[in-house]
Amino acid sequence: MIDREARLAQNEALFREMNERVEATVLATSGDDEPFVVVCECGNIDCLERMRLTAAEYDAAHAHPAQFVVVDGHVASDVEDVVARHDRYIVVRKRGRAGEIAAELSDGEL
Fold first, then answer.
1. What is the pLDDT of residues 72-86, one digit of tens each?
2. DSSP state, 36?
3. Which range marks the domain in which residue 12 is found?
4. What is the pLDDT of residues 42-51, one digit of tens each?
């Protein structure tokens, strides 16, 4: 059975991959200043909450492979730290085993 930290990291990496595909489409059609809708990258696989970010905001939030964007109230404080708070989103960084798994998955091991 997969442990909670691994499951959370895998769920968040899946959402990040989906959001990166949306970002690429927006960049190709609208440019990098146009805000686009991303799905919350929290560990809850059933979460469908959304937020609007520009490509610059999204890229800055993911400057570290263990960082994710989530809506307020979706921070898993037992496995992640808040890196930045913005009016529309929060940037969190996985720590410990979850952080290691997130970094591995960011390298294409999803």
1. 999 999 889 999 999
2. E
3. 4-109
4. 888 889 899 9
